[in-house]
Write a structure and sequence with these properties.
Blueprint: H1 2-9, H2 13-42, H3 50-99, H4 109-120
Helix pairs in contact: 2-3, 3-4
Length: 121
């Protein structure tokens, strides 16, 4: 508890306002979701129970985890495509060099730049 007080004292006034705004937005989001959950059960909102609040919090974190999962999945897919492109480029260069046994810097400058780019990647 003492550590929490020390951390809060280190906040600038602008940081305190930003923190209060974030807390208020989070609270309003949870309350709106809890109100929706309560109205799903009874049809109208007479009161919001602790179960409604807990379910709203769980749904909030589930939505956050889903978005993180899809973001990670998208990054893996992009990496897979980049690696597949690099493998195809390397395979194409190997086939080129097998078919053309002699390499001339004057005529094969594009191939040499391509090899450099793949190595840097």
């Amino acid at each position: 508890m003492n550590n929490k007080i020390n951390i809060e004292q280190q906040l600038t006034p602008a940081a305190k306002d930003a923190l209060e705004n974030a807390i208020t937005e989070y609270k309003n989001s949870i309350l709106e979701k809890a109100s929706e959950i309560s109205s799903e059960i009874t049809g109208n909102v007479k009161e919001i129970s602790i179960r409604d609040i807990m379910e709203a919090v769980d749904r909030y974190y589930l939505r956050k985890k889903r978005s993180e999962f899809y973001e990670l999945k998208q990054k893996r897919y992009s990496l897979l495509l980049a690696m597949a492109g690099a493998i195809y480029a390397i395979a194409g260069l190997i086939i080129y060099f097998v078919q053309n046994r002699k390499v001339s810097f004057n005529t094969d400058l594009g191939i040499i730049i391509t090899i450099s780019g793949i190595i840097i990647m």
